[in-house]
Amino acid sequence: MDHLDCYPDPVTPTSRFGSPLVVQTGAVRLFVAAWPAEPVLRVLAGARPTEPTPDLRWVPPANWHVTLVFLGDVPDDEHDRLVEALRSVGATTPHCTAVLGPETSVLGSRVLCVPVTGLDRLAATVRSSTTPFNRSSDSEEAFFGHLTLARARRERSVPPAATGVSMCSAWPVSEIRLVSSAMGRQGAEYSPVALVTLDG
């Protein structure tokens, strides 16, 4: 099996992420991330209260991920080389284990998240290999593994009751994904660009 499943065909293909690939032109906002396994999704679902939370805008479960590096707006003509750089990561990087928890917390003042450890070496490798393509203004910021559950609505903050919720799980990370992000009417919309298996 190839290290990379890529979808360059302009005919709308069906991705293995469960949705069609959106073909975009020009500079595309990209990031590389690890997606949690199905058992972890069930654990995460327990963080969302059954009662309404008007202060928060919850991230759809399909969008739950751990960002390894945010690349900003990458020009189209660099995408092939970016994918090749990620292919080299897949060929030399072994599987690792992501550890979720121990509880929900606030990142900044408006992001409700769950810390994720165990991905520091993978993130460092991905960041190093993608440096020539990174257009993000925060490319020098230190990696902090986390999975965003919700964001506070404008002029609001994360309610204290949403933090400190116990949440522990782990999953083997055997692949990373290159994903494009665009703002839609319901928030961020993600489209798959490439999937790289970790075979090192």
Description:
The chain is an alpha+beta fold and 200 residues long. It has one domain (4-197): Cyclic Phosphodiesterase, Chain: A, CATH 3.90.1140. The protein is 16% helix and 35% strand. The chain has helices at 38-45, 79-92, 120-130; strands spanning 4-6, 28-34, 56-58, 66-74, 96-100, 105-107, 111-117, 146-152, 169-173, 175-184, 187-197. Strands 3, 5, 6, 7, 8 and 9 form a six-stranded antiparallel β-sheet that branches. Helix 2 packs antiparallel against helix 3. The longest helix is centred in the middle third of the chain and has 14 residues, at 79-92. The chain is globular, with a radius of gyration of 17 Å.
Helix content percent band: 10-25%
Largest sheet: 6 strands, antiparallel
Outline type: globular
Distance from N terminus to C terminus (CA atoms, Å) equals: 13 Å
The fraction of residues assigned to DSSP E strands is 35-45%
CATH topology-level fold name: Cyclic Phosphodiesterase, Chain: A
Low-pLDDT segments: 1-25
Query: CATH homologous superfamily?
Result: Cyclic phosphodiesterase
The helix count comes to 3
Write down the CATH class: Alpha Beta
* Corresponding CATH architecture: Alpha-Beta Complex
Counting helices, strands and paired strands, the structural category is: alpha+beta
Order of helices and strands: EEHEEHEEEHEEEE
Number of domains: 1
Topology, number of strands: 11
Q: What assembly state would you assign to the polypeptide chains in this entry?
A: single chain
In short:
The chain is α+β, with helices and mostly antiparallel strands.
Q: Which secondary structure elements does this structure contain, and how are they paired or packed?
A:
Elements: E1 4-6, E2 28-34, H1 38-45, E3 56-58, E4 66-74, H2 79-92, E5 96-100, E6 105-107, E7 111-117, H3 120-130, E8 146-152, E9 169-173, E10 175-184, E11 187-197
Antiparallel strand pairs: 1-11, 2-4, 2-10, 3-8, 5-7, 5-9, 6-7, 7-8, 10-11
